[in-house]
Amino acid sequence: MSQELNKIDIDTLTSAVNSGYSAIRLLAKLQPAAGPGSKVFPPSHSEGKYAWEARRVEGGEVVRTVLLDSVQSQANRMEQALKEAYISQRINFPLLAVDFGSHFADIGEITTLDAPHRIADAIFRDSLLGDQKFPDTNIAKAYSAANQRNATALYQYCPHALIFGIWDSTGSAGGLGNKFQRAVVSEIVGIKAEAGVLTSSRLDPLGIKTVDIYAMPDGGWTTDKTLAETDKKGEPVKIRPSEVNHSNIPPTIKKSDKGDEFILGGVTIDYARQTTVLSLPALRRLHFPVNGEVSAQINTAARTVLAALGLAAIVHQLENGYDLRSRCLLIPEGKFNFELVDNYGESKTFSLSASEADALFTAAVTKASGLGLSWNEEKIQLQPTPDLFELVRMSRDTTALTEE
């Protein structure tokens, strides 16, 4: 049973985070931008397959579904949405960054919102803060010692890691490094999905026919067999013009003897469903002592900041739209609301815009700061170690040689 809450304010969010509520949930129904029944293209996974799965949907019906955006991909999109909000100065929160721009302009700056393992990523481990290796800094030592009973250091330097999860598997403790579960989980699934077919064709404006040409030793091609690469018998190696992107390619349907799941021709769906859940019990497990003292009031304030940051990430991602990849643009079926779900399954619905989420987050941060729980407000800038810089350079040189 659902009740109308309309808007959520700082007091309501604080109360929900403190006790009595289990989740903030968003269920969104989406359609292809080209309209119902048009194709969308899921991501391909191992062996080039789509992620097919039988799932139980509303009413108990078991249907064939396909994954359109994974939990990991959704987390990355939310982090990038937060990064855009940070850059545009809509919200401010602690951030670390490694600057590769002076060496590799195309890489530029890698922040804890970009790195796959956030503050625990090897990119930060192998960087310098001034003349000091990052693992030797007080920041890294405090973070490495963090756990659920003392998450203050992560709150102060990388709070989004407490929302999207983190595992310090690259630190000195290896696989025993600290772990924090995801508090925000989201995915997008295509419901009642049917596999499409993969077609290909090319109309050559030069009208080149299928004639013999020859491979060159340097990887090019030639019409002069005396310049051609030769095989073990000393014969020039013949190739087709289509192999070097000349001549027509007649319309074809690509087939596979491994089954339909290997034919990456997109899918048609009844609709796509996005399910996003912010776990309030996951936040309640976190404690934030200040100067060695634990305060229930400060714990609640910090958890409220994290909940507000999670809501901001969700809403900013929604406002960015659902252009998941080439030929996979989705449009919501109308506006949708969040649900605040209590410990007994009852829910209250509320709407939340990006500007409202920003204001809610700012209010939560101000309240926590007023209680003595402050965080680092300036971006911490690191530089790659010479070894990390050299690793990137050598990798690029190797790639360039391989492509020649």
Question: Can you tag this structure with a few keywords?
Answer:
single chain, 404 residues, alpha+beta, 2 domains, ten-stranded mixed sheet, five-stranded mixed sheet, 10 helices
- Based on secondary structure, the structural category is alpha+beta
Major sheet characteristics: 10 strands, mixed
Share in helix: 25-40%
Compute the average pLDDT. Answer: 91
Distance between the termini: 64 Å
Spatial shape? globular
Annotation, overall tally of beta strands:
24
Using the CA coordinates, give the radius of gyration: 26 Å
Q: Runs with pLDDT <50, length 5+?
A: none
Number of domain modules: 2
| Strand-residue proportion | 25-35%
Oligomer: single chain
Number of helices: 10
Structural description of this entry:
InterPro entries: CRISPR-assoc_prot_Csb1/Cas7u (IPR013403). It holds the Pfam family Cas_GSU0053. This is CRISPR-associated Csx4 family protein. The protein has 2 domains: 2-194 and 262-396, no CATH class; 204-247, no CATH class. Strands 1, 2, 3, 4, 11, 19, 20, 21, 22 and 23 form a 10-stranded mixed sheet that branches. A 5-stranded mixed sheet has the order 6-5-24-7-8. It has a 3-stranded antiparallel sheet with strand order 15-14-16, with no helix packed on it. Helix content is 28%, strand content 26%. The chain contains 10 helices and 24 strands. The mean pLDDT is 91. By secondary structure, the chain is α+β, with helices and mostly antiparallel strands. It has helices at 10-18, 71-87, 122-125, 138-144, 152-157, 161-164, 280-284, 296-320, 354-370, 386-403, and strands spanning 2-6, 21-32, 52-56, 62-69, 96-99, 109-111, 127-129, 132-133, 166-167, 179-180, 184-191, 194-195, 198-202, 213-215, 221-222, 238-239, 249-254, 267-268, 271-279, 322-323, 329-332, 338-342, 347-350, 380-384.
